[in-house]
Amino acid sequence: MGEMIAVIDTETNFSDKLISVGMVAADASTYMVKDEYYGVFDPEYKSYAMYSHVIKYRGVNIDKVAPGNEIFADMKAFLEKNNVSRIFAYNAKFDHNHLREFHHFEWFDIMRLAAYRQFNDRITDDFECCKTGRLKCHYGVEDIYRLLSGNYGYREVHNALADARDELQIMKMLGRDITEYEIARLA
After folding, report:
1. Bridge partners for 24 per DSSP
2. What does the alpha-carbon distance between residue 107 and residue 51 come to, in Å, rounded to a whole number?
């Protein structure tokens, strides 16, 4: 097995507190899932959130419902067990800002490749782009997943683990080598 990466997604409540985190560990060359973790923050998940109705979601097993310190300890153990040093996320600054305990990892933004004509072959000349090559609009997870997969009925679930799986799938569909994400490193 080669280098392992993690793709992380978080969900928050209306107080901007974490309510859940999903992580997939994957092979950096094939983007195949090797391990998963899904933690729910207690008591934060009990506060109203836009997507609280999908905390429990079909096909997603909750590993733990516990206070943040326990979830963070599990996350650390998960990343160590899978020998992960690089974390990827779509719109990574959001997740990075909510996971300060993990700032010592290298972080990369999937969107930095997915939303740019230079890296996403499905963004053709008829798409409206900025001078930088980035789409002017419709470059969120749902739009990019639809564009890459051709599945225009796809809906982002907003369950942290389901979304982390989908974000990894975006990386796989883009077909870019992991080394190309160097330009997407968070400072």
Report:
1. 7, 36
2. 25
Q: Which of 61, 67, 73 is nearest to 46 (CA)?
A: 67
Share of the chain above pLDDT 70, in %: 99
Which domains does the chain carry? 4-184 (3.30.420.10)
SS3 138: coil
Residue pair 1/83 in contact by the 8 Å Cβ criterion? no
Helix (H) or strand (E) holding 92: helix 92-98
Sign for the pseudo-dihedral over CA of 80, 85, 90, 96: positive
- Which segments within the chain are labelled E, that is strand? 4-12, 18-27, 33-41, 64-66, 84-89, 106-109
pTM, two decimal places: 0.96
3-class DSSP state of 116: strand
- Is the per-residue pLDDT at 105 higher than 80? yes
The b-or-e profile of 41-80 (16+ CB within 10 A means b, else e) is beebbeeebebbebbebeebeebebeebeebbebbeebbe
Cβ atoms within 10 Å of 177's Cβ, excluding its own:
9
β pairing state of 64-66 and 33-41? parallel
Average pLDDT, the chain: 97
What sign does the dihedral 137-139-142-146 (CA atoms) show?
positive
